[in-house]
Write a structure and sequence with these properties.
Layout (H helix, E strand, L loop, with lengths): L2 H12 L7 H17 L4 E6 L4 E6 L6 H21 L7 E5 L4 E7 L3 E7 L5 H32 L12 H8 L1
Antiparallel strand pairs: 1-2, 1-5, 3-4, 4-5
Helix pairs in contact: 1-4, 2-4
């Protein structure tokens, strides 16, 4: 993991709600669309570790992507628990093989989950190759996103939020 990816992961662990801008979303969506084609996959989607769907592409019409995103995040959390029991930091790649479909799951930047669903039209080798290349590109996009968030935080733009002026004391008074 690069230093920037480590900073990205650390920032997202402190503030788990991901901020997404249109420019980066469009870049992420383009990578996901390309991965569907290049890996000959049925579906590709990106989820944050909270189970929120970020982007999806492919044959998503017959899939409950919200439930799948949530279950994927739960799978990653459970696998993370197993990794800790074995003295590992995490298992960054998971693979599930079914009778018809296979699922390749990889963690990008310790915060985002890339899921590729594929069938016999593709192979695990091809999927792994294309995922590796896409993960590098996505890591760069998420680093760019972190830098943009940090820049806006430093410039005061983040304070433009309607909740920026609300303090913990205000919340205590409201519910106290």
């Amino acid at each position: 993991m690069t230093r920037a990816e480590g900073e990205l992961a650390e920032a997202w662990m402190v503030n788990p709600q991901m901020v997404m801008y249109e420019e980066e979303f469009n870049q992420i969506q383009a990578v996901v669309d390309r991965l569907v084609r290049e890996a000959n996959a049925k579906v590709v989607f990106i989820v944050d570790k909270n189970g929120q769907l970020i982007a999806a592409s492919g044959e998503v019409d017959n899939i409950d992507t919200t439930s799948l995103a949530s279950l994927t995040a739960g799978n990653i959390a459970a696998t993370g628990g197993m990794a800790k029991l074995l003295g590992e930091k995490e298992f960054s790649i998971l693979f599930h093989e079914g009778a018809r479909d296979n699922i390749h799951i990889s963690i990008i930047g310790q915060r985002v989950i890339l899921v590729v669903i594929f069938d016999q039209r593709s192979s695990l080798g091809l999927v792994r190759l294309r995922v590796k290349k896409s993960a590098d590109v996505l890591g760069g996009i998420f680093n760019q996103l972190l830098q943009k968030v940090e820049t806006e935080k430093g410039s005061g733009k983040a304070a433009d939020s309607p909740f920026a002026e609300i303090t913990d004391e205000d919340i205590d008074k409201l519910f106290g």
